[in-house]
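Appendix B, record 7
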Amino acid sequence: MAPSELMQKSAAFKYDTIITVKFPTTADDPRQSEFQVHRGLITHYSDYFRAALNKETFLEGKNGVIELELNDLDPFTTFFAWLYQRAGNPELESEHIDGIFDDHQNDNKEHRTKARIWLRDCVRDWVFGDMRQAPEFQNWAMSCMITALSGFNNFVFSVTAINYTYEHTMQGSMLRKLLVDSMGRYSRSLHQNFTRGNKSYVDDLPLEATQEVLVAFMKKDPSWPGPISAPLIRDSYMVPVPDRTSMS
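Structure tokens (predicted):
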């Protein structure tokens, strides 16, 4: 089959029937609570939705309606936009951060506060992708975080983001690796306080995070040399992506 025919077949498969994703919002919640999504598209990029919308196995698949918890609403909203605007188009990553990190030299308090909020949301999106088995979406969120981090000389992940990461991921996850590596590479004060045993500085961090940072310092891994400004290598934090051609 010619490449053009394969593309047409893939497109037809992705944009087939419509299903509904619903969230239990309240009347005073201004956020969109129902999303109309092409079944082929969402199941193509998420093994979780592929299984949940199986017509032969689950009621959701037969009815074409799936309900998610309210705390998934914000990350799903981003996922929905990603599916239709950025899936398969990694070059559009810069558009997501345009206007947020437009001046890499503007490392002031206001800029860092804005970055912490935005990175917290990226962490939430990555975790959603992890839980819903959508590796391309995870890698997109990760790529955005790494691009953003390159604009700062200080560690800009909030304690909220760190705690959320350790509450919702397993040991060895790429997101934990990014956080630990970022602590060492971008925070001289953090490095000094860890090595000097200043417990009050790290009291708000999850115990696992503290342990992993200390282990990284103690190992003195050449690829993780401590407080330097060396860039993070993007490919080191990507999760494996299955071959999608057989799913089209």
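Remarks on this record: Residues 1-10 have pLDDT under 50 and may be disordered. The chain is about 55% helix and 5% strand.
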